[in-house]
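User: DNA starvation/stationary phase protection protein, Leptolyngbya iicbica LK:
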Amino acid sequence: MRPINIGLTEEQRCSVIELLNRNLADVYLLLVKTRKYHWDVVGPQFRTLHELWQEQYEALSLHADDIAERIRALGGYPLGTVEGFLRYASIKEHPNDLPNANEMVTRLYTDYEHIVRNLRDYIAQCSERYNDEGTADFLTGLMESYEETAWMLRSFVEGEALQGSTSSSDSVNNMPAGV
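Assistant: Predicted structure for DNA starvation/stationary phase protection protein:
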């Protein structure tokens, strides 16, 4: 292979590729979990969640492809086996466990929040330690997307809790002053 001369040392590139593969593993595992919940959800919110999760796993699939292509652009090779994904992932599976719809939503937004926290660290490392602003910018875009998805999922669970509330004053307790 010809040397890659993009202003990063081989050590910097390899370190960034490692971070990207860790992110790829988390995204791929989250994609699998989202698809599984898409298949298994039941209850009054079936259609809403079924359609939402299809949108989300399709977006995650595109993100996984983008991450893999960023790895290749840096001269690395993306993980491509379930064994590799499980070894590198920081989020966990829940084998032989089929939660109710609200718990599915909670698990997914918790995973998105976990990935966002990881991405904040990866972004800082890419910028400050590895001098790779391109990857930092790329990961920032992913982070913003995952923050929005986590918010949407949290809002679903919070909305379910509000529907079960008998007091209308409960819904304003967490509002900022003046709203």
